[in-house]
């Protein structure tokens, strides 16, 4: 995962060309599965347990094994890259060698897989603080590689890195037009995995769902 800011990697005109020129045609929208309606998300949010966040003591990303093999030589990351991109070409190891990826967090389009991260909508550290610290490693692996719900999405790498492990009370996608969808995905993931929310997080999610 690259940690270099794009503004440092590319001159501004080139950055804009790479992110925006390709947007002259309608971009493919990264759409994870099982995104609920706003009404369902509001009901699920109301059903979540509200509690103070737990400690990060003992946390390690290694306790959430990823990425794992999904099919053949394809790991979770490459599977999501193919799902969320357009015209994605892969090599014999299933690595994406070309394609286009539109990041709904910031509206940028990229043509190199190295510019794209696979974001855990609910970050692994956030899950740990919200209940996953008591899970088995097997359950944490399933969570970290969840392709059945809206937990994984391809987005601009340094935008994902800016998010870190913050919940919606502390970080939201730069594009306010995506806040509704982001909140629906966040709530549904926490609901599916029986994770808790804190009070500030719940308030932020209610406000974001109010935009739907």
From TrEMBL:
Q: Name one Pfam family in it.
A: GmrSD_C
Where's the GmrSD restriction endonucleases C-terminal domain?
100-205
Entry keyword set: Signal
Q: Where is the signal peptide?
A: 1-30
> Domain of life here?
Bacteria
InterPro entries, sorted: GmrSD_C (IPR011089)
Name of the protein this chain belongs to: Uncharacterized protein DUF1524
From what organism does this protein derive?
Answer: Saccharothrix variisporea
